[in-house]
Amino acid sequence: MRAAGRQAAWAAGGGLLLALACLALDPEQKCNRTQYEAHGKCCSRCPPGQRVSVPCSNDSDTACASCRPQHFQNGWTKQTVCTPHRYCDQNAGLVVHIQGSAEQNVVCRCRNGTHCSSRECQSCRENKVCQEGEGAQQTATDTTDTVCAECPVGFFSNISSATASCQPWSSCWAAGLVHKTDGTRSTDVVCEEAHRSRSLALALVPLAAVIVVLGGLGLLLWRRRLHRRELQKQQKNQPAEDDFEEDKGCPALPVQETLPMTQEAEGKDSRLAEQEHA
Ligand SMILES: *[C@@H]1O[C@H](CO)[C@@H](O)[C@H](O)[C@H]1NC(C)=O
Ligand SMILES: *[C@@H]1O[C@H](CO)[C@@H](O)[C@H](O)[C@H]1NC(C)=O
Ligand SMILES: *[C@@H]1O[C@H](CO)[C@@H](O)[C@H](O)[C@H]1NC(C)=O
Ligand SMILES: *[C@@H]1O[C@H](CO)[C@@H](O)[C@H](O)[C@H]1NC(C)=O
């Protein structure tokens, strides 16, 4: 508290000294910002929207007057003239953005489809148009140009435009259609009526049914025939099979006789031989 008080005292003292020094050097400093020094005294300045019409004299204060049309004055002035409004040059592509007043200047901007070609905006430039396959990532403002970007996969743009963004490819499935042609950056997916393939499918269903039925029938017939043939074979082959066993047995016997034999086989053979002899 005491430190702050001392600081404030110092600041006040310093300020006073500075003010006195300034008064000694520049007499206008004793006047505030709405005044000016003339004839050894403070004369009034003219407020926004006005100008000095008669400067102050020894025995009279400043006389002010309104700015003329198309002119403005936005401060406290000792000037005798106001400033003309800015002219928005249509040939340069400029249009009035904010109407002027006695206190404010006109604000110009570039007309639709163009943007300022410089910070000062003395002229305008046409906004860049994005080509097919590109979309406007950022549309132009009155001070900035269009920013174009290539359409990402799954998106397309089939028009040159300064404002259009890339559109997503159509979904044939969602539309109840079928995919015909792939999409590109500049063309949409092409869909077609599911008609053709659906009618094809509808034609295939009975065809498939017929095939299945015929196949089943064929199988049934084939199995029945097989069964019947087997029965015939069984009836016919019963004796034939016995003959075959005998045929196989007969030539084997002499071969077996030449081989070395076990006691049992010898006995059996001798028995067989006995049987044959008998
Ligand atoms: C300036 O001084 C004049 C006359 O003393 C007074 O009427 C006016 O309010 C002052 N203006 C400011 C901003 O101090
Ligand atoms: C204004 O006053 C100054 C001194 O205060 C004097 O020299 C000057 O002649 C006077 N002018 C008029 C027009 O009265
Ligand atoms: C300028 O463009 C904006 C937005 O596209 C539109 O609303 C406005 O009507 C246009 N003005 C003119 C003069 O074309
Ligand atoms: C752009 O694509 C859309 C959607 O496929 C289509 O309707 C339109 O006719 C196309 N426009 C041009 C100019 O190709």
Automatic annotation (TrEMBL):
<dbReference type="GO" id="GO:0045935">
    <property type="term" value="P:positive regulation of nucleobase-containing compound metabolic process"/>
</dbReference>
<feature type="repeat" description="TNFR-Cys">
    <location>
        <begin position="109"/>
        <end position="148"/>
    </location>
</feature>
<dbReference type="GO" id="GO:0002768">
    <property type="term" value="P:immune response-regulating cell surface receptor signaling pathway"/>
</dbReference>
<dbReference type="GO" id="GO:0038023">
    <property type="term" value="F:signaling receptor activity"/>
</dbReference>
<keyword id="KW-0732">Signal</keyword>
<feature type="domain" description="TNFR-Cys">
    <location>
        <begin position="30"/>
        <end position="64"/>
    </location>
</feature>
<feature type="signal peptide">
    <location>
        <begin position="1"/>
        <end position="24"/>
    </location>
</feature>
<dbReference type="GO" id="GO:0010557">
    <property type="term" value="P:positive regulation of macromolecule biosynthetic process"/>
</dbReference>
<feature type="disulfide bond">
    <location>
        <begin position="130"/>
        <end position="148"/>
    </location>
</feature>
<dbReference type="GO" id="GO:0051240">
    <property type="term" value="P:positive regulation of multicellular organismal process"/>
</dbReference>
<dbReference type="GO" id="GO:0006952">
    <property type="term" value="P:defense response"/>
</dbReference>
<dbReference type="InterPro" id="IPR020435">
    <property type="entry name" value="TNFR_5"/>
</dbReference>
<feature type="region of interest" description="Disordered">
    <location>
        <begin position="231"/>
        <end position="278"/>
    </location>
</feature>
<keyword id="KW-0812">Transmembrane</keyword>
<dbReference type="InterPro" id="IPR052135">
    <property type="entry name" value="TNFRSF5"/>
</dbReference>
<comment type="function">
    <text>Receptor for TNFSF5/CD40LG. Transduces TRAF6- and MAP3K8-mediated signals that activate ERK in macrophages and B cells, leading to induction of immunoglobulin secretion.</text>
</comment>
<keyword id="KW-0677">Repeat</keyword>
<dbReference type="GO" id="GO:0035631">
    <property type="term" value="C:CD40 receptor complex"/>
</dbReference>
<feature type="repeat" description="TNFR-Cys">
    <location>
        <begin position="30"/>
        <end position="64"/>
    </location>
</feature>
<dbReference type="GO" id="GO:0009897">
    <property type="term" value="C:external side of plasma membrane"/>
</dbReference>
<dbReference type="GO" id="GO:0042113">
    <property type="term" value="P:B cell activation"/>
</dbReference>
<feature type="disulfide bond">
    <location>
        <begin position="43"/>
        <end position="56"/>
    </location>
</feature>
<keyword id="KW-0472">Membrane</keyword>
<feature type="disulfide bond">
    <location>
        <begin position="46"/>
        <end position="64"/>
    </location>
</feature>
<feature type="domain" description="TNFR-Cys">
    <location>
        <begin position="109"/>
        <end position="148"/>
    </location>
</feature>
<keyword id="KW-0325">Glycoprotein</keyword>
<keyword id="KW-0391">Immunity</keyword>
<feature type="transmembrane region" description="Helical">
    <location>
        <begin position="200"/>
        <end position="222"/>
    </location>
</feature>
<protein>
    <recommendedName>
        <fullName>Tumor necrosis factor receptor superfamily member 5</fullName>
    </recommendedName>
</protein>
<dbReference type="GO" id="GO:0010468">
    <property type="term" value="P:regulation of gene expression"/>
</dbReference>
<dbReference type="Pfam" id="PF00020">
    <property type="entry name" value="TNFR_c6"/>
</dbReference>
<dbReference type="InterPro" id="IPR001368">
    <property type="entry name" value="TNFR/NGFR_Cys_rich_reg"/>
</dbReference>
<dbReference type="GO" id="GO:0006874">
    <property type="term" value="P:intracellular calcium ion homeostasis"/>
</dbReference>
<keyword id="KW-1015">Disulfide bond</keyword>
<keyword id="KW-1133">Transmembrane helix</keyword>
<keyword id="KW-0675">Receptor</keyword>
<feature type="compositionally biased region" description="Basic and acidic residues">
    <location>
        <begin position="265"/>
        <end position="278"/>
    </location>
</feature>
<dbReference type="GO" id="GO:0051094">
    <property type="term" value="P:positive regulation of developmental process"/>
</dbReference>
<dbReference type="GO" id="GO:0023035">
    <property type="term" value="P:CD40 signaling pathway"/>
</dbReference>
